[in-house]
Design a protein that fits this description.
CATH class of the largest domain: Alpha Beta
CATH superfamily of the largest domain: Periplasmic binding protein-like II
CATH architecture of the largest domain: 3-Layer(aba) Sandwich
CATH topology of the largest domain: D-Maltodextrin-Binding Protein, domain 2
Shape: globular
Structural class: alpha+beta
Distance between the termini: 49 Å
Largest sheet: 4 strands, mixed
Number of strands: 22
Helix content: 25-40%
């Protein structure tokens, strides 16, 4: 495998120039003094070092086909290197990719902590690799006007597996969110068959049972459970949260008809009745949500430190039995249980993820069937192997076979299948505690189930690595909740996007501060009208008007 480690890039700003000079060193590429590359071949090359078209699959690549280039190709790829499983050129993943597809990957490796910044510099300078994974929706927008990334929606007819997933899983409403002002999208997202809810609250079910209570399924029922816990354990504040309360605000906001916390986004919500966007944090619904959580604080049910404390402090309280409720996801609850086994004793407690409580809007669930995905450099379209590039991406990231391969690895090597098709890691391999006695890790030692290649997929594939507990949570959420479809997309051009950002940044910063003040009681909710007036003086109306002008013009 061709393995180019570019873990540091030197950027020299030259006086009176605006360009960025990228300097990288490896065995196959030299950068001369004026920043031009002397390279053996281009980003895509065959095994003779030239760029003659190789062709593949006789031009008839279809769903279910295994992609394999007729001639060996070397494709450049930007790689986000995770510190917990640093990239290794000897991974079975790379060996099998080359064996199955006749494609060698030429990696530009960037530490995960620097990935967003370095990706931006590489793409903006026109020196990015051809394949640019680990890009979240919206992160591609700054590169659209410059023409440095491919309008991939123009070429998805060459990607049968992607197209099949879009049609079968009804992804078009979600893809609409990716479309830019020109009606095209520039990101190939990771795609899921269903919305995948993860974040919720973990609760001490043994305490709930001890008090002869039912598990809460609405926010009102949740408050009742906290009140009963407080009455039985007056020295304990039952709910002490982590993530600075951002997760809980995010999951609660949907059921109050707004957005908030981690899910605040643009802070704009769509008013279907009036066919317009409005600023969510100025609505009565947002006030109702803050009033609810302020009530929990006033009653001593919600720890005030939830909004400021470090995660370790919140976890310590929960693990030690000094609180009974905390924010969680599928991995965190495993970690809590492991620590509580040591502190409280394995038979002295029980915990579980509860479904996200319903609120005034009922049992609703937002979210997307899309996740981080791939940009393709605009240079790819000039390559003689352009169709091969797209078909390789289509097979590896979007075919059933490719998704199973990047997640589980190689059958009878890293996993086995029984007669019912159920997968199981081989004896000496572990991943997220599935085989705790294993001495090798599926990601760190073999390269599979990593964040660059493995995301998206069918619900069956997603569940295949879930515990029974997590599958139960997922099924309960989907059976209980009504899915909220995304708001109409706002297709800003470059100037409009800049104007929107200039308006939204101070507004959202102010909202964040005021939200915490209202919840903690540091600002009286009777001052709500004053708060809205402050938002108006900061340009809230201009922000809404710009959004609605863009929306109406795109209809």
């Amino acid at each position: 495998m061709r393995f180019v480690l570019k873990k540091s890039l030197l950027f020299i700003a030259v006086a009176l120039t605006i360009g960025i000079l990228l300097v990288g060193c490896d065995d196959s590429k030299e950068v001369d003094g004026d920043g031009n590359s002397n390279t053996e071949g281009n980003n895509v090359e065959n095994n003779n070092g030239n760029n003659e078209a190789s062709g593949s699959n006789d031009g008839d690549f279809q769903v279910g086909d295994q992609f394999k280039a007729d001639e060996k190709l070397t494709l450049s790829l930007l790689y986000s290197d995770h510190p917990n499983y640093p990239v290794d050129e000897d991974w079975l993943l790379f060996e099998e990719i080359e064996k199955r597809t006749n494609v060698e990957l030429d990696l530009t490796v960037v530490p995960m902590s620097d990935y967003t910044e370095k990706r931006s510099l590489l793409v903006s300078s026109g020196k990015a690799p051809l394949i640019i994974p680990k890009t979240y929706p919206g992160e591609e927008t700054p590169f659209v006007a410059s023409g440095t990334v491919l309008p991939i929606s123009d070429y998805v007819d060459l990607m049968p597996h992607f197209q099949e997933k879009v049609e079968k899983w009804e992804l078009e409403p979600f893809l609409e969110e990716l479309r830019q002002k020109d009606g095209k999208y520039y990101l190939l997202p990771g795609v899921h068959e269903d919305v995948w809810p993860d974040y919720t609250l973990a609760i001490r079910t043994d305490i709930v049972e001890e008090l002869d209570l039912d598990m809460p399924r609405t926010w009102d029922e949740f408050e009742t459970v906290l009140e009963e816990m407080k009455e039985a354990y007056p020295d304990i504040t039952p709910f002490s949260d982590r993530w600075e309360f951002e997760s809980t605000l995010g999951i609660a906001a949907e059921s109050f008809g707004v957005s908030g916390g981690w899910g605040l986004g643009s802070a704009l919500i769509f008013d279907d009745d009036n066919d317009e966007f409005i600023f969510g944090p100025a609505t009565d619904e947002y006030k109702e949500m803050l009033t609810y959580f302020n009530g929990l604080v006033e009653k001593g049910l919600l720890d005030k430190e939830s909004l400021t404390q470090e995660d370790d402090d919140a976890e310590r309280k929960f693990v030690n039995g000094d609180s009974f409720v905390i924010g969680t996801n599928s991995q965190s609850i495993v970690d809590y249980r492991k620590d509580m086994n040591e502190v409280l004793g394995e038979d002295n407690f029980s915990i579980k993820k509860i479904i996200v409580p319903g609120g005034p809007e009922g049992h609703v669930m937002g979210g997307s069937k899309l996740e981080n995905g791939i940009m393709i450099s605009a240079d790819a379209k000039d390559e003689p192997h352009f169709e091969d590039i797209l078909q390789f991406v289509d097979w590896l990231w979007y075919s059933d076979e490719g998704q199973e391969f990047t997640k589980w690895g190689v059958e009878d090597v890293t996993y086995t299948k029984n007669d019912d098709g159920e997968r199981e890691l081989t004896e000496d391999i572990d991943y997220v505690g599935m085989n705790p006695d294993g001495t090798k890790a599926l990601n760190a030692d073999f390269g599979f189930s990593g964040g660059v290649f493995s995301y998206g997929g069918s619900t069956e594939l997603l569940h295949s690595m879930f515990s029974e507990e997590e599958i139960e949570f997922q099924e309960d959420m989907h059976e209980t909740k009504e899915l909220i479809l995304p708001d109409p997309p706002l297709q800003y051009d470059e100037l409009e996007l800049e104007q929107s950002s200039l308006l939204s940044t101070p507004l959202k910063d102010f909202v964040s501060t005021a939200t915490f003040e209202f919840i903690l009681g540091n600002r009286d909710l009777d001052e709500w009208d004053d708060y809205v007036a402050e938002l108006e003086s900061m340009g809230m109306g201009q922000y809404e008007d710009l959004a609605n002008e863009v929306y109406q013009n795109s209809k």
